[in-house]
Amino acid sequence: MEKLIITIFLFKRVNKILENGNISSSQFTVLVTFFIIGGSILYGPTGLVHGAGQDAWIANILVLGMGLLLVLLYNALGSCFPNMTLTEYSEKIFGKWIGKVVSLLYFTYFFLSTANFVRQAGDFTTTQFMPDTPITAIHIMFFIIVIMGVRIGLEPFSRASEIFFPLVVILVLILIISLSNQIEFLRIQPVLKEGMTPVIRVAFHSLGTPYLQLVLLLMLFPYVKQTKEAKKSFLFGTLIGGIVLILITTLSILVLGSEITERHQFVSYVLARKINVGDFFQRIEAVMAIIWFITMYFKISIYFYASVLSLSQVLKLEDYRFLIYPLGIITIVLSLVVNENIVESNKQAEFWTSYSLPFGLFFPLLMLIVSKIKKINTKGE
């Protein structure tokens, strides 16, 4: 009887570890890359061009630089607590009650962002592919797949991202190469006509999507096998994703021009429609749609996983899967009311950086400073 009890205990312990996941550094790199590209590859160029005109590519380089600095901050914080998630060490740093409040604020941020991105997926699908299909049906079908991915756990989910990564790389290369014959460098001139002020302003304004959102990946950071490799993967994945966004923004300006780029909501999708090689290889906008759907799926899934995991850790639950279905239903409902239409989504984007700033910069910086002052970490308390 005693052996049976010990066996059951060990099984539960092992099963709990497997549920938490254990991913490689290469898988973490892919997840970070998909997180950066997801959503931003369609919406990003329009917002940058709106503020910086033909100098949007310079603003994109600046915002990538600021994003890499944020990743250095997240790496420093994550390496202090290599075996704990963001919500776990917030209680360790701030104390039980203040820490729980901070953790609940992060859960709210993650959860509302999940619903917001589901709404973006629904808006894109109904406006570009299925105008007669109710957006509720799109949200339900899309989020069922998200729930399936989160429920199977972090390890299988991360391995799936590696399978899709070569496909995304090939499709991005096809897009760039196919449009190379339509590039006109005169469209990027004059450079810095209005000076650096509008470029810096729009770069800071664009920091909220996606770079301040990278704080979410501190929920995955402790599950990477080696902390040192996790830090490198975080930086490398951010760099790859940022370069892709720079290329797409620059290509939009060089092929379409700043005025056309600014007018279109989904400019990258419009860009893909311009592909025409020998009047044979043309109208392959599905390439951009596939890139966006793959990367957006993984981004939303990471957000939902972090939401469920953070709440389960605040509530001290043994299994985060218990919360997947109720939170999934609430997410679908919330996605229908978070924004009524694309116009509201655009208005929301105007203050997204201000909304994300406390979560992406102030709280992590404060945590790092307090942990250093109090000399709190899991490597030596």
Can you offer a commentary on this structure?
This protein is mainly alpha-helical. It has a single domain (30-353), classed as Amino acid/polyamine transporter I. Helix content is 74%, strand content 1%. The protein has 16 helices and 2 strands. The protein has helices at residues 2-20, 25-37, 40-52, 56-80, 86-94, 96-128, 135-152, 154-179, 197-205, 227-256, 258-263, 267-273, 286-314, 324-337, 342-350, 352-374, and strands at residues 276-277, 281-282. Strands 1-2 form a two-stranded antiparallel ribbon. A hairpin with a 3-residue loop joins β1 (276-277) and β2. The chain is globular, with a radius of gyration of 21 Å. The model is unreliable at 1-19 (pLDDT under 50).
Question: Strand arrangement, largest sheet?
Answer: 1-2
How confident is the prediction overall: mean pLDDT?
85
**CATH architecture title:** Up-down Bundle
State the secondary-structure class: mainly alpha
CATH class: Mainly Alpha
Count of domains: 1
Q: What's the tally of helices?
A: 16
Secondary-structure map with pairings?
Layout: H1 2-20, H2 25-37, H3 40-52, H4 56-80, H5 86-94, H6 96-128, H7 135-152, H8 154-179, H9 197-205, H10 227-256, H11 258-263, H12 267-273, E1 276-277, E2 281-282, H13 286-314, H14 324-337, H15 342-350, H16 352-374
Antiparallel strand pairs: 1-2
In short:
Pfam families: Spore_permease. 74% of the residues lie in helices and 1% in strands.
From the structure above, extract its key features.
381 residues; mainly alpha; Amino acid/polyamine transporter I; 16 helices; disordered N terminus; germination; Spore_GerAB
